[in-house]
Every structure is written in C-alpha cells, then in structure tokens.
Design brief:
- It is a single chain.
- By secondary structure, the chain is of the alpha/beta class.
- The chain folds into 3 domains: about 230 residues, HUPs (Rossmann fold); about 80 residues, no CATH class; about 80 residues, Translation factors (Elongation Factor Tu (Ef-tu), domain 3, Beta Barrel).
- It has 11 helices and 18 strands.
- It is globular, with a radius of gyration of 23 Å.
- The protein starts with a helix and ends with a strand.
Length: about 425
C-alpha cells in the first residue's frame, strides 16, 4: 500500500466506524469523484455511483469541450473498474429552471451570478441527495476539495465545513450556500488530499480518469463563449462604451472615506451603492453588442486600443445599454472599500455564529473563487450586512457571492447587492 493511501486510511479510521453503510457517490467522469468512490469502497462502504445529466444543449460551448456523453463513458469505466453499480439520473429540466434561467435573469439585470454555487445548492446537494436517499443511501459523497468536521454546541451536533487541504484546489467557496441539513449526510473523501496525490491514487489503481483534464467553465455546461451562450435569451444590442476619467468629481467624496469611519457607521450609505454614471461624465471610446454580456472588472472583449494602460469595465447599465470603462488597475471606479448584503440574501452555514443587529466581528472574506482570503469586518445592521475590508477590493460585483471564514472554517455567505 502506498504512503498516500496509508495516510488517507488513517485519517478515515480516526473519523468513521464503517458498518456497511451505503453511500452514493456523484461520479462525474473526472478523476476527483473517481478517487472519492475508490477510497470509500476501500473503507468498507457499500458504494453506488450516480451520474447526473443536467445539460443537453451545446449552444455556445467551445469546440473541443467534452459533452456529457463522454463524461458518462468515463464514469462507466470507473464503475466497472471498481465493481460498483452506476445509476444515471437526468435533472436537466430542473437545472435549467433553477440554475440556467437564474443565470440569464441575473445577466439581464446587469448582475454577475455564480452558477457553480447555485448548482451545488440546488442540484448536487438537493436533487442529487434526494435521489440518493430514494436509492437507500445513508450518505452522499462528492469529489470536492473541502473537509467536514463535527462539533458539539450546547449539546447539539454542528457540522463544520473547512477548506480543503490543498490550498490550490480548495472548493469550499462553491459550497458557501449549503445548510446544516445538507451537510448532515455529506462526505468529502478527498478533502484531506493534494491534487497530485489524487492523481497518484488513480494511476496506481488503474482508473481511466487518472490523466483526464479537470473540467472548466459553467457547472455541467462546460467551457463556453459567454456572449454566445447568453444570446440564447439575451439578444445583441449595440451601445456605446463610455470611458470615465479617474479624476471624476464623483470619486472625490469616496476618496475622503476612511475605513475607521465605515466601522463607526459613517459613510455606509456610500458603501452600499454602486457609482452612478451618466454618458455626460466621460467620452465615447468604442461600441459593444450588449451591456448584459459584460461584468465588472472585465478586460477581454472591449476592443479598445491606443491606451497607455488596459481598459476595464467599471459599470454596466443594462437599461440604457451603456457600458462604462476605466483605464488601469488603479482606477477608482474599480476599487471599493466594501459591500452590502440585504437580509434576504444573508446565509449562515453556522447559524450559531450568526451576528445580531448591532454586532460586528472580524472575519476572512473572499468575493470570488480563488481570491486569497481578505481581512474584513462584518457589521450587522437592521437593514442588512455590511462588509468592510482592511484594503480596497478590486471588482466587487453585484450578484456574486461573498463568503466569510473564521480561520479555515466557512461560516456563511451572501449575494452582493
């Protein structure tokens, strides 16, 4: 037995006593879920694989991207190698309604959704879990790089969701909308491993997915040309690209805000609102085919040349179809002190840690996947949650999820207004 497997099994032995419990593993046709199934079977679980079909349409997908039927072939090869049954389920109708339609609606309003977060909340840890339980599962497992621990709070079992041991592959952010109930039956077998260890296990045990590339792009859809994908429902509309100068008077008041004022409650009104631009504030620098195809901080696709520094999107107006841009990473329209989350969009994975109105506390926060965790203060008010960063953040985007951590534990998240 390899040293990697010995370490994995010692970790599991310290956490679980397996009495032929049945676990259904979401097998996607990738190496991570394949190794998750392998490890669970080695631990003595009664393992069944479940392959989810969630998307049939290839409109907008890039050439060479593997469709789901290729993934199914690899899933079948892995199931055969592991000698486990494989169930195929089709959630495509629900996926379109819960994830893709939501995505279209958000872009239409000039917001930038994260479909992977929604996919985990609405499909993998809802529809998939229900289907697994209908098949007699005691647990469900996925190939996510994250860890789950149990603790007692006032005599009640609380589940902690921790970052994966591999800092380059940690996927806890994508699970930031899960609930205690959804974590009850969840297992994350590869959360303690590094990516190269996962591939080593796959190679050593002859799994067909050992050398397969990681999937990219939208969850279950794949890598897409986003404007082409969005054109399914959001039609092209020609409009102007307006360049906003860095010395705009609008920025002067914001420049006077100090972080200490924000924590004291002064200046929070400026924090909650996006900068409001008008075409008279800048000059036309080009044209676009639809403001709803762009997102804050985007550089690609502007086609503006002859500038000393790169141009970035700083605001989208999908009503009047205007796109506002600024030059350079340091443009004041691209960097903000903080963000606001309305009450309906605040989610605590650990309800026992939730802040009450009037309370504030320091946490580590990220506003997008792979962003290094940032020091910030959370301030809970009657009107919602404010997050104030120690340093200005680039590209805070409405519709994205902000997730906050206490050390390596994910405590909650919310949709940025």
């Amino acid at each position: 037995m390899s040293s990697v497997l010995k370490r994995v099994f010692s970790i599991f032995a310290a956490k679980f006593t397996v009495l032929k419990k049945k676990v259904v593993v979401g097998i996607s046709g990738g190496v991570d879920s394949s190794v998750a199934a392998f490890l669970l079977k080695k631990q003595g679980y009664d393992v069944t694989g479940m392959f989810m079909i969630n998307w049939h349409d290839i409109t907008g997908t890039l050439a060479g991207d593997c469709p789901w039927n290729d993934d199914l072939i690899f899933a079948e090869l892995v199931a055969r190698k592991l000698d486990i049954p494989l169930i195929t389920v089709d959630f495509s109708e629900a996926y379109r309604k819960r994830v893709v339609d939501y995505m279209f609606a958000e872009y239409e309003q000039g917001r930038t959704p994260n479909p992977d977060v929604l996919c985990n909340r609405e499909v993998k840890f809802d529809l998939f879990v229900k289907a697994a339980l209908d098949n007699g599962a005691d647990y469900v497992a996925t190939g996510h790089y994250c860890r789950k621990q149990e603790t007692l709070v006032d005599g009640n079992t609380i589940y902690r969701l921790l970052q994966g041991s591999d800092p380059n592959k940690d996927q806890s952010y994508f699970l930031c909308q899960l609930s205690q109930h959804q974590l009850t039956r969840a297992l994350f077998p590869i959360g303690e491993l590094l990516k190269h260890e996962v591939r080593d296990i796959a190679r050593a045990n002859g799994l067909a997915t050992a050398e397969r590339k990681d999937s990219q792009g939208i969850c279950f859809v794949g890598k897409v040309d986003l404007p082409e994908f969005l054109k399914q429902k959001l039609k092209p509309r020609t409009g102007p690209i307006i360049e906003i100068p860095a010395d705009l008077p609008l920025y002067q008041a914001y420049a006077q805000i100090h972080r200490e004022w924000l924590i004291d409650g002064r200046g929070l009104d400026l924090l909650t609102n996006d900068f409001r631009y008008g075409t008279e504030m800048g000059k036309v620098a080009g044209s676009h085919n639809g403001a709803h195809y762009f997102t804050i901080g985007q550089r690609k696709g502007l086609h503006i040349g002859g500038k000393a520094e790169p141009m970035f999107v700083i605001s989208t107006d999908t009503i009047d179809n205007n796109l506002y841009v600024g030059m350079g990473h340091g443009h004041p329209g691209l960097n903000r002190w903080g963000l606001f989350i309305p009450p309906a969009d605040i989610h605590w994975l650990r309800p026992d840690c939730a802040l009450k109105p009037g309370e504030s506390k320091g946490f580590l926060v990220r506003i997008r996947y792979r962003q290094p965790l940032q020091q910030a203060t959370l301030l809970m008010k009657e009107e919602g949650l404010y997050i104030v960063f120690d340093r200005k953040q680039r590209g805070i985007t409405r519709g994205q999820f902000a997730a906050w951590y206490d050390g390596e534990e994910l405590l909650g998240s919310g949709v940025i207004q």
